[in-house]
Amino acid sequence: xxxxxxxxxxxxxxxxxxxxxxxxxxxxxxxxxxxxxxxxxxxxxxxxxxxxxxxxxxxxxxxxxxxxxxxxxxxxxxxxxxxxxxxxxxxxxxxxxxxxxxxxxxxxxxxxxxxxxxxxxxxxxxxxxxxxxxxxxxxxxxxxxxxxxxxxxxxxxxxxxxxxxxxxxxxxxxxxxxxxxxxxxxxxxxxxxxxxxxxxxxxxxxxxxxxxxxxxx
Length: 217
What we know:
6 helices, 11 strands
């Protein structure tokens, strides 16, 4: 079966920009305080639940993966881009990083205690999000947590350059209520939301959602 064209575009684009991305994107310590607080809260919930490892999906160069590890979380990273995975392995050799797609996770049913999708779903066309969120539900253990963070809005962006390099991916910004609906349609229960207006380095509205897979009755 042929790979969807959007996955090819994302992989090739991030392979191209990987080194420049590391130079230009600030580390987790420089995030706004509220985003850091959401990451810390998610880390505490996943750690204390003790349901399994956390997968950082779309981990890029591994900085947020390492941030969670520093908060005491058993975590590993997954990214579509081989170049990004290589940078992550080089920077954090004590952590595990693998290549993979959110559309078809190479994990067992109910294997994960948590999933982090941190600014990693906006390149997914809206019609593919139900498949992605179904994979989140499949791989999460009952009672497991998801933290989703990304840009929100009503835009389809088609940049030709990013991080100083040519790219071919697109970005799809959806309203926060639509993201909540999609997660709940996948069987995940949203328990907290945070909406942030543009400010500092971020020039678009962005948001975080904390969700949980219901425990088995």
